[in-house]
Every structure is written in C-alpha cells, then in structure tokens.
Amino acid sequence: MKAPKFNYVKAESRSHALQLLDELGEDGRIIAGGQSLMPTLNMRLSQPDTLIDINKIPDLGGITLDGNIVRIGALTRHVEVANSPVVAEHLPLIAEAMPHVAHHAVRNRGTIGGSVALADPAAEMPACVLALGGTMVVESVNGSREIAAEDYFHGLYETARETNELLVELRIPAKKTGDISVFMELAQRHGDYAMAGLACVARINGNAFEGLRLVYFGSEDKPTLASKAVSAVIGQAWSEECKEAATKALEDDLDPMANLQGSSAMKLHLQKVLTGRALDTAIERAEAA
Amino acid sequence: MSEATMEISLSVNGEQVARTVPVRQHLVDFLRTEMGLTGSHLGCEHGVCGACSVRVDGAVVRGCLMLAVQADGAEVVTVEGLTQTGEVADLQENFVNRNAMQCGYCTPGMLITASELLRDPKPVTRAEIRDHLSGNFCRCTGYHAIVDAVEMTLNKRLEEG
C-alpha cells in the first residue's frame, strides 16, 4: 500500500528538531532510519500529522570511548555499530547481536537510536542496552536528562521518553576485564524478528557464576531482566542440575505473549533452551579466556 | 489534508535530476513513475522481500523504506545504472549460466545486494553469501542457483585480482 498523507519537515539541527517536537506535540513523529516506521506508514498503521526527519542533523551520530563509557550517537547506523572497532573491543555483546539485527540493507539505514526509541519487544538493541546497564540521554527544549535502561523501557513500544524529547545518545559501560557476554536469538529466517532471544552478561569464577544479568526479548512486552533464574544460578557450580533449576525458575520470570510465531508455552520453552545454551557458552568462553 | 510536496534534486544513475514530489512518495515509486526506471520492483512494500533494493550514496537500501524526499542531494543507482556501467555484467552472465533467474521479479534486488559483496571482493563461504542475501526473497529458484552465480562471479574476480 501507499503511505497516507502527512507533512514533512527536515530538521536542520538538534535545536531545530527540539523546537519542532515541542511545537507539534503529539502531531509530530520523528523519522530516523525509518526501517520500522516506513513499513507502518506504507501499511497505514501509522498516520502522523508531521514527520520530523532528523537524518541530516550533523552531530547525532558517531561512536566514542569516553573513559569506561562507550557513547553512541542516536543516529549511528547499525552498519556503523557492526563495523566499529570500539564496539568490537568494548561492547562484544552488541557486536555479537548486530548480525541478528534485520538484514544487510536494513542495517545500512536503520539506527541504534531508532531501535531503542521504538522499543519493539522483539528488537535486539533494547535488550543489549538493558543487559549492559546503559543509560539513555534525551533532550528537549527544557534541557537534557539521563534515563537508566531499567527505568526506560515501560512496555510494548512504551518508554520513559516524553513526546517533546529526542533520544540523542546511548551511554553504555565498556566491558570490564573478566566480563563474559553471550547473545542468542531464534528467528524463522536469519535476520527476521526474534521468536525468542537472550542477552547475557556474566562474571564467572572457575565453574560458578559470581554475577549474572539475563535479559530476555521477543517473548515479553519489553526487554525483561530475569531475577529468579539468576538466583538459581549464582554461587552454584554450573551443572545439569543447576541448568534445570535455572530454567524451572525462569517460569516465574517470564510470561510470554503468544503471537503468529508461537504460543506462550512454545516461547517459554524456547527461552529455556536458549538459557541453557547461553550459560553453557558463557562457561566455555570463561574457560577459553 | 492536502498533498504536501517538496522539490528535490538528486543524481539518478549518474544523471542530475530535479522534480517536485509528494512528500509521502517512497523512493521506488519515484524511480518507477517519475523516472520510468521500472527495474526496481515492489514486492511487499514493507521491507521484507528486498525486490526494491537500490543503492543510495554507495549503500544498498530498501527503496520502499525511504522517502523520495530523503534522497534529496543523494546519489541513487538502480539496476539500470549498474547494467549501464557494466559493473555487474559478469554477475548477470552467471545468473544466465546458472539459471539463477526464473520469473525475474527478485533479480534486480539480488544483483544490487550481491554487488556489495563483489565490489571489494574477499573470499567468503557459501554460508556467508546466503547470509548476505538473506533479506532478499526468491520464490522460484530455491536460492541454490543464485548462490552459485554469486560464488562463481566472486571467485573469478578474486582469481583475476
């Protein structure tokens, strides 16, 4: 189908975009890479009054290491994140996740900020940012504020960002020596929306997990930290029994939404399988390190 | 709401053009209806099938997921442009040799997407070729022949340096 009628404004600068957002309120809709917004426009699932195009704003992209924080501009394209040596060295979880983010041509245009701002429950980047304890920087005409990932994702496409705010940057703690990360996802076709997925960051001593963050996506209404599964694992020697206890505990952490790709029970099963695989992999990576 | 329009100026297959377009028109509709370049195909029109792939400022993108107004000032290359310059002549020949096109609907998107692998050829596995083409649907060939054609072209280019 063809997109409905809308108005279109090209924001020339950050301040111009913020001014437009403030003036237009609910009638304004930001378009960055547009790789999720354009399909909904073409299918007439979205009908914005005015699109605010931020693609030409000069200082919204780029990846820098600032002390022990990696700063990623919201307009940084997925392909730039995927090819970044800074990301490869300091955010290996995101580097491992990147090949799962849609397909080649979509990664050339889609942005990391767009993915986090939209908060699609099946998207990889929100889960990674939450697993790594990142912070979102948003700006409005009234100034800027930082929102921790734990407080940012509220639900299905819902975030803490206000209508007049623009997501400008992600600040993500760099990998510390000894951190192990694992990213896993199941999709019908490589690059398609996740049916189930897991971003895992761990500290491992010998054969036991000392620290662990497990973030599930693709099954819940938002990226979801699992606490009960983690409690079942921490401080225990990793074993088949421990794995079974963790996957059993996961039943209390997750409440998967059924969709065309599978029932709630099937998705829970897939997340359990991924949990076992990811934790096995984490132990292997710790041994190899 | 009245139809909002905007004047744009861009390079299409090396030729500088200026047009006034509806702001809601996506790039492939612009190329097909305004420019008469019907090589870029519309399959799903929501970013899944890859038949609309075009090259914008050197990178392959989904033509249906970009507005024409967003291509203002850009360099756009379609399958017609790739054909004119001879950049993919060897790939096209191998598509014929391997019977990698049947109905032909996906072929322009396949050629443009594969051209990114061939531009700066490095040894890649068949799995990597498949991965690179994973965003392009083909409903005829079963993909095997397409992967063959890309692999043959790549190997030949690597051989010839």
- What class do helices, strands and sheet pairing of chain B give? alpha+beta
Number-wise, the strands of chain A total 14
Shape of chain B: elongated
Examine the secondary-structure arrangement and name the CATH architecture of the largest domain in chain B. Answer: Roll
Structural class of chain A: alpha+beta
Portion in helices of chain B:
25-40%
Largest interface (CB within 8 Å) is between: A-B, 32 and 31 residues
Helical run tally of chain B: 6
CATH homologous superfamily designation of the largest domain in chain B:
Beta-grasp domain
| Order of helical and strand elements of chain A | EHEHEEEHHHHHHEEHEEEEEEEHHH
User: What is the CATH first-level class name of the largest domain in chain B?
Assistant: Alpha Beta
The CATH topology of the largest domain in chain A = Uridine Diphospho-n-acetylenolpyruvylglucosamine Reductase, domain 3
Compute the separation of the termini of chain B in Å. Answer: 56 Å
Task: Write a compact overview of the structure shown.
Chain A is α+β, with helices and mostly antiparallel strands and 289 residues long. Chain A is built from twelve helices and 14 strands.
Describe the structure.
The complex is a heterodimer of chains A (289) and B (161). Chain A has 3 domains: 7-53, Uridine Diphospho-n-acetylenolpyruvylglucosamine Reductase, domain 2, CATH 3.30.43.10; 63-172, 2-Layer Sandwich (Uridine Diphospho-n-acetylenolpyruvylglucosamine Reductase, domain 3); 179-288, CO dehydrogenase flavoprotein, C-terminal domain (Enolase-like, domain 1), CATH 3.30.390.50. With 289 residues, chain A is of the alpha+beta class. Chain A is built from 12 helices and 14 strands. Chain A has a 5-stranded antiparallel beta sheet with strand order 4-5-10-6-7. A 4-stranded antiparallel beta sheet of chain A has the order 11-12-13-14. Chain B is an alpha+beta fold. Chain B folds into 2 domains: 5-82, Ubiquitin-like (UB roll) (Roll), CATH 3.10.20; 86-160, DNA polymerase, domain 1 (Orthogonal Bundle). Chain B contains 6 helices and 5 strands, in the order ββαβββααααα. Chain B has a 5-stranded mixed beta sheet, with helices on both faces. In chain B, β1 (5-12) and β2 (15-22) form a beta hairpin. In chain B, α3 (89-97) crosses α6 and α4 packs parallel to α6. The mean pLDDT of chain B is 97. The interface between A and B is medium-sized, with 32 and 31 residues.
